[in-house]
Amino acid sequence: MSVAGGLPRAVDRAVVHGCDALQIFAKNANQWRGRPLPADEIATFRARVAEAGLVAVVSHASYLINLATTRAALRQQSIDAMADEIDRAEALGLLGVVLHPGCYTTGRADDGLTLVATALRALLDERPHGTTRVLIEHTAGQGTALGASFEELATILARTGHHPRMAVCIDTCHLLASGYDFTTRAGYDRTFDQLVDSVGLDRILAFHLNDSKKPLGSRVDRHTHIGEGCIGQAPFGWLLTDPRFAGVPMLLETPKGEGKPTGPITADPLDAQNLATLRALAAGALSR
Question: How many other CB atoms are there within 10 angstroms of residue 186's CB atom?
Fold first, then answer.
């Protein structure tokens, strides 16, 4: 949900849509520096989350962060920005920060995985009393982007020493685009069995539920509405009713209508459409 008009309004938007989980940007996702968060805004946000009964709130880190780079200046800038993301999430009482692992700019992918893990381990070790977790997001694998395979996610976790505050976020659009075919029942079982075996069930802390405009193995990240893309409705129904993932936050990143930063908050018709489809699938009201 948008934080336009202040962080507490994101909670109000979630309430209007009947949500019990929420994802926000704690700062502008396309800028290195974010505005300082006033203490009163933090306090109001935390109070509104509690009042709304939201069971999980996460932030998504800036898209500029690249912890896999070998360029010293960019790497330090990325580390500093990720430190800020973690500190903001901690102040807001969030479950975690979702992070794209980044792109290896030179050398080998394996070296990039080490750079990501080393940076994250250091950032978490510098904050020994924190509770906010880092959720590495599985990616579509475009270009030299890391994290497009379960093995790469598992490698990052392992190279942080399986730090207890490290976890993963799985995006359904990215899964299909990166080559995991879960559009049949057998394919679903094979894909998610492999996921659990690779990273561990206890490390799967969030899902992004997005259909994909692009086909299997395209390596292109283009989200679309649930049931209107190359995934279709059925796999979302299987995921929503998979007992292994009961209680894991599942978040929409599908296209929205034109929102207003001020004035009365009303439901976004596109969000309402996607939420209604998912809720019907979860309840078994739609054929799977």
Answer: 9
- Torsion angle defined by CA atoms of residues 215, 216, 217 and 221, in that order, rounded to the nearest 10 degrees: 50
Domain of 202 in residue numbering reads as 7-283
Give the distance, in angstroms, between the CA of residue 198 and the centroid of all CA atoms in the same chain.
Answer: 18
Residue at 69 is within a domain = yes
Percentage of residues in the chain with pLDDT exceeding 70?
A: 98
Dihedral (CA of 251, 65, 164, 192) sign: positive
Question: What is the pLDDT confidence band of residue 288, given thresholds at 50, 70 and 90?
Answer: low
C-alpha–C-alpha distance, residues 75 and 78, integer Å: 5
Q: Which amino acid, one-letter code, is at 45?
A: F
* Confidence check: pLDDT of 274 > 90: yes
The mean pLDDT value of the chain amounts to: 96
Which tokens belong to 51?
A: 């009042």
Give the CA count within 13 Å in the CB-facing half-sphere of 108: 4
Coil/strand/helix, residue 112: helix
Per the domain annotation, does 197 fall within a domain? yes
- Which amino acid belongs to residue 219? R
Domain CATH code at residue 149? 3.20.20.150
Q: Which residues of 71-89 are buried (b: 16+ CB within 10 A; e: fewer)?
A: eeebbebbbebbebbbbbb
| Token pair listed for 101 | 């692992």
Within-domain flag for 79: yes
Is 191 among the domain residues? yes
pLDDT tens-digit profile of 142-184? 999 999 999 999 999 999 999 999 999 999 999 999 999 999 9
The pair of three-digit structure tokens given for residue 35, joined into one six-digit string: 């505005």
